[in-house]
């Protein structure tokens, strides 16, 4: 009941605001110039923004925007992927005057972003990881990075660092993005030595600190000496691995501060490079593509600086591949590639480049990965 | 780095190590709750108390550099929460389960709010004893790194059992829990005894929480407790209000929780969702096998609202 009242109050506020804005733009000669110089941006996170992980990477992007002149940033943390995010977005639009919104969690897109994008056609929605399809609102956009490129480089460094030839990968759920990272990491490591294997442990959810610590410990007990992960906050895994004397490669953000002895390198998002360009596009009125994708070349992902323990051979090989990736001449998923059950998944002579849509529905683990997707 | 792999031996070892590492919060919360329930009251709010304990212990350890001070403060915060629960329940016609649920949500929310600046910093962790010095195997050494809190918990269980059976305090607690009329007739105030018992339960839950943030997994995070507090309350019923059974139940739960990751690490990769559910399946099985429609649950306090 009260909810209905609230919405009607908000719509009232909105119609007032839109009317006033329209009046300002049309009647005053400097109105448009003024509007072009200032922008209110909203950021919505699914967890705490200083989690050493997924949310921190986005928050670093928000920090980059705060430095821009005329940009006002509003943030809200721990917003669940429910109707709550709709309320948050509406209040950002109506109360803070947000014209550009970053709902950063995967589950926000359908139906919440889509619904509000229809309702507020003058607000731009930039959604991370989403899958914008033809026919969906024009002001909704989705962006994502080919972070498997950075994972491949992490794999190379891990492949040089391991003595037992056994790597570990702690992952939340067997979804395509996660499998792609596991596979790229393993392919990178096996490009150093084809005898290397990657043991996968799925914890079942994005944030399970006790299970993540337990998984790291059981990997250490099995003689695995380099561990990496794909969970929301790698903090517990990196800290536990450091206690057990293992090497780690990071994910999402830079975790080097947590493991001075064991942090080799890591696959990081580079949102602080990408987000200012979105703001510039919105201010200039340039059309933003509906699907923004890119990797190292487009500076959407990056790698953590090497730890001091990374040897010269590892640096040399990783840097060489990185240069090719940045030039766009290196293909990670290049046939022949077999899955870990012996089936050929990419035939010889077939190259699936980064933009290949087949990679976005990956459902297998490559040869050398010990684990199963179900 | 040790290069030896112990293969399948890793599974029993991981279950053993997991039993020790994961069980401590269960042990503390269930021992405390056992005392509370023996007095005839159930405190479901311990989940919130546990999280408040974890947060305050981490904050204090970070600010003062002393993890043991953090443990103490966590216990005090837990005591306050316990007294709050007991205080509200002392009012006439207040349902202890409803108050517990309210306090669970309140404690969780308050801990997340106050713990906001603590997600990033690293606080000093509690020290552990190395009981694995005799072994050359790095895996065994790691499994036998045992935290002092676990040892305290293990010692407390038989002490509680003895105290419940043989001391005046234990007797008063049991009288109040079994019949408040009888307690009143003997001149004891059930409300005062329950206040002390619930405050004590809160203290233990706070300390249990400090183990989560200061030892294992050893950092403050909003997803830190995935229901350990509420599980521990259920463990008390499962343990039939016997402190030694609380110890065994906690160990069983800890070991079963380690099963999923351990099996995956040796290559048993099918059905990990099922293995991850092992602790709960095990609980259900034992409850079904040990249930009986003929007799009253042995050891159940007569005044407890869930069994009355």
UniProtKB/TrEMBL annotation, chain A:
Keywords: Signal
Domain ABC transporter substrate-binding protein PnrA-like residue range list: 40-304
PROSITE patterns tied to this protein: TAT
Signal found in the keyword field: yes
One GO CC annotation: plasma membrane
UniProt keyword Signal present: yes
Pfam families per record: Bmp
Protein name: BMP family ABC transporter substrate-binding protein
Species whose genome carries this gene: Parvibaculum sedimenti
From TrEMBL, chain B:
GO CC, any one term: plasma membrane
Transmembrane region(s): 6-32, 44-63, 69-90, 97-115, 143-164, 191-217, 223-239, 246-266, 272-289
Subcellular location as annotated: Cell membrane
Stored InterPro entries: ABC_transp_permease (IPR001851)
Gene Ontology molecular function, alphabetical: transmembrane transporter activity
CDD domains xrefs: TM_PBP1_transp_TpRbsC_like
Membrane topology: Multi-pass membrane protein
Keywords: Cell membrane, Membrane, Transmembrane, Transmembrane helix
Name this protein carries in UniProt: ABC transporter permease
């Amino acid at each position: 009941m009260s909810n209905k009242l609230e919405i009607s109050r908000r719509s009232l506020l909105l119609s007032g605001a839109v009317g006033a804005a329209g009046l300002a733009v049309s009647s005053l000669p400097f109105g448009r110039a003024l509007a072009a110089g200032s922008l209110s941006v909203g950021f919505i996170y699914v967890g705490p923004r200083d989690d050493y992980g997924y949310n921190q990477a986005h928050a670093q992007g928000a920090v980059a925007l705060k430095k821009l002149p005329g940009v006002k940033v509003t943030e809200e943390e721990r917003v669940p992927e429910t109707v709550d995010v709709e309320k948050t977005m509406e209040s950002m639009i109506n109360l803070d005057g947000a014209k550009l919104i970053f709902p950063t969690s995967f589950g926000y897109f359908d139906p919440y972003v889509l619904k509000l994008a229809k309702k507020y056609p003058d607000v731009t929605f930039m959604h991370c990881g989403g899958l914008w399809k033809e026919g969906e609102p024009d002001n909704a956009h989705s962006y994502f990075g080919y972070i498997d490129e950075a994972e491949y480089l992490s794999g190379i460094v891990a492949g040089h660092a391991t003595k037992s030839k056994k790597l570990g990968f702690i992952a939340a759920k067997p979804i395509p993005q996660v499998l792609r990272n596991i596979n790229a990491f393993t392919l990178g490591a096996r490009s150093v030595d084809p005898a290397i294997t990657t043991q996968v442990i799925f914890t079942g959810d994005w944030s399970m600190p006790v299970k993540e610590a337990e998984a790291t410990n059981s990997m250490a007990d099995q003689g695995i000496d380099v561990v990496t992960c794909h969970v929301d906050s790698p903090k517990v895994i990196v800290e536990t691995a450091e206690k057990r004397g293992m090497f780690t490669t990071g994910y999402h953000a830079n975790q080097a501060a947590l493991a001075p002895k064991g942090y080799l390198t890591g696959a990081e998002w580079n949102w602080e490079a990408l987000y200012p360009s979105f703001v510039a596009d919105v201010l200039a009125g340039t059309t933003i593509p509906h699907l923004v994708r890119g990797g190292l070349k487009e500076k959407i992902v990056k790698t953590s600086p090497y730890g001091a323990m990374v040897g010269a051979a590892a640096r040399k090989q990783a840097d060489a591949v990185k240069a090719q990736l940045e030039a766009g001449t290196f293909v990670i998923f290049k046939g022949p590639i077999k899955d870990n059950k012996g089936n050929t998944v990419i035939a010889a002579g077939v190259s699936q480049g980064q933009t290949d849509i087949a990679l976005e529905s990956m459902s297998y683990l490559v040869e050398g990965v010990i684990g199963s997707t179900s | 780095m040790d290069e030896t792999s112990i293969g399948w031996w890793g599974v029993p070892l991981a279950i053993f190590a997991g039993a020790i590492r994961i069980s401590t919060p269960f042990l503390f919360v269930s021992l405390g709750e056992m005392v509370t329930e023996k007095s005839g009251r159930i405190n479901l709010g311990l989940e919130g108390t546990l999280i408040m304990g974890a947060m305050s212990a981490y904050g204090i350890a970070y600010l003062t550099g002393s993890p043991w001070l953090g443990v103490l403060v966590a216990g005090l915060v837990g005591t306050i929460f316990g007294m709050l629960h007991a205080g509200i329940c002392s009012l006439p016609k207040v349902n202890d389960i409803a108050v517990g649920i309210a306090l669970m949500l309140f404690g969780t929310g308050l801990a997340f709010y106050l713990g906001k600046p603590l997600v990033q910093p690293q606080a000093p962790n509690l020290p552990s004893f190395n009981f694995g010095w005799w072994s050359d195997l790095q895996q065994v050494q790691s499994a036998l790194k045992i935290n002092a809190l676990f040892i305290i918990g293990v010692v407390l269980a038989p002490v509680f059992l003895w105290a419940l059976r043989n001391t005046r305090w234990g007797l008063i607690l049991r009288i109040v829990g079994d019949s408040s009329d009888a307690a009143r007739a003997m001149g004891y105030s059930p409300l005062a005894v329950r206040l002390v018992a619930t405050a004590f339960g809160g203290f233990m839950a706070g300390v249990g929480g400090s183990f989560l943030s200061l030892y294992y997994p050893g950092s403050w995070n909003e997803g830190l407790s995935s229901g350990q507090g509420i599980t521990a309350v259920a463990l008390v019923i499962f343990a039939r209000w016997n402190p030694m059974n609380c110890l065994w139940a906690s160990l069983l739960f800890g070991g079963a929780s380690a099963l999923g990751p351990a099996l995956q690490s040796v290559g048993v990769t099918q059905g990990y969702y099922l293995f991850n559910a092992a602790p709960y399946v095990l609980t259900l099985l034992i409850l079904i096998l040990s249930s009986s429609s003929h007799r009253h649950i042995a050891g159940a306090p007569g005044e407890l609202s869930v069994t009355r």
